Amino acid sequence: MKKHNFSAGPCILPQEVFKEASQAVLNYNDSGLSIIEISHRSKDFVDIMEEARSLALELLGLEGKGYKALFLQGGASTQFLMAAYNLLQTKAGYINTGSWSDKAIKEAKLFGEVAEIASSKDSNFNYIPKGYEIPTDLDYLHCTSNNTIFGTQIKEFPSSNAPLVCDMSSDIFSRQLDFSKFSLIYAGAQKNMGPAGTTLVVIKEDILGKVERQIPSMLDYKVHLGKASMFNTPPVFAVYTSMLTLRWLKKLGGVAAIEELNEKKAKLIYSEIDLNPLFKGFAATEDRSNMNATFTLVNEDLKETFDTMCKETGINGVNGHRSVGGYRASMYNAMTMESVAALVDIMGDLERKA
Ligand SMILES: *Cc1c(COP(=O)(O)O)cnc(C)c1O
């Protein structure tokens, strides 16, 4: 039985993408070769890389606006340091909305002064700080659009005269935003775009070249841009599968279409969390994420019963992160309304049983 996969990452992908990617592993495009055994310099793979890069820009509405897309390795975690390596000359501002921001801050501190200009640490990151002042002497301002662990999401982004850098690992391509507000966007593929192994970096080229330090080639955005994201062997399977997911998204109607579905899914689960007296939401209502819904049982004694019900219904990956506890339902782009309804149904069943 195919499970309802609520895992936070690596995540669910469209079934048709799994099928096409598996086929390509056996025989890519009837070439008699596997996608993972052909040269990354072959026309077949160069075309895949170029399609992936241009689909990413197209879906974000950033074509012809001075942006380039890269598919790199090392995960979003490498971007924590790479962003600072390339952009931090004197001082950067960071908004701390959870463990991932915290890690980004730690890395940036290796390169210069870091001003933590707002934080929700005082309340275990269950809300998005607002109304803070932004210094005017920043090399860049960094934020995390969606806090995968805590289930909060920035709805209104800060505006600053400094370039805005954003970790969009867990909500990239999930909602419409004016992406041209951002100068650097990065996202590990495995939350909403593809398998683990590649990281999308979307960069406005004019922000580069402003730091004085020497940058090692593999960590230099300019080097990767100069080689069209092929400086070294790219993670071919991860890029290919991400490209298939982006094609799927485009065919569906792009970010506008998926946003509508994502809002419906989120509404369904949050109304159950709000109305069902056995459950309690973790994140502040106005900051709740449409990607990761975090909630707990009011009475922990019901945990075993509810976990058994999840198992019997084929619901997978709903355990909360250890720093929050309870449950987390991740509802990335490829998750269907039916899967969310299956979870909401057993939440209702538990109430009727208890
Ligand atoms: C998962 C996640 C990361 C870490 O990504 P890796 O690719 O594992 O390095 C960073 N930021 C956010 C918001 C995430 O959800």
UniProtKB/TrEMBL annotation:
GO terms for biological process: L-serine biosynthetic process; pyridoxine biosynthetic process. One of its GO terms (molecular function) is O-phospho-L-serine:2-oxoglutarate aminotransferase activity. It is an enzyme of class 2 (transferase). Gene3D superfamilies: Aspartate Aminotransferase, domain 1 (3.90.1150.10), Type I PLP-dependent aspartate aminotransferase-like (Major domain) (3.40.640.10). One of its GO terms (cellular component) is cytoplasm. L-glutamate binds at residue 41. Residues 5-343 form the Aminotransferase class V domain. Its cofactor is pyridoxal 5'-phosphate. Its EC number is 2.6.1.52. Pyridoxal 5'-phosphate binds at residues 76-77, 100, 148, 167, 190, 232-233. Pathway: Cofactor biosynthesis; pyridoxine 5'-phosphate biosynthesis; pyridoxine 5'-phosphate from D-erythrose 4-phosphate: step 3/5; Amino-acid biosynthesis; L-serine biosynthesis; L-serine from 3-phospho-D-glycerate: step 2/3. Binds 1 pyridoxal phosphate per subunit. It is found in: Cytoplasm. Keywords: Amino-acid biosynthesis, Aminotransferase, Cytoplasm, Pyridoxal phosphate, Pyridoxine biosynthesis, Serine biosynthesis, Transferase. The modification N6-(pyridoxal phosphate)lysine is found at residue 191. It catalyses: O-phospho-L-serine + 2-oxoglutarate = 3-phosphooxypyruvate + L-glutamate; 4-(phosphooxy)-L-threonine + 2-oxoglutarate = (R)-3-hydroxy-2-oxo-4-phosphooxybutanoate + L-glutamate. Catalyzes the reversible conversion of 3-phosphohydroxypyruvate to phosphoserine and of 3-hydroxy-2-oxo-4-phosphonooxybutanoate to phosphohydroxythreonine. Belongs to the class-V pyridoxal-phosphate-dependent aminotransferase family. SerC subfamily. Homodimer. This is Phosphoserine aminotransferase.
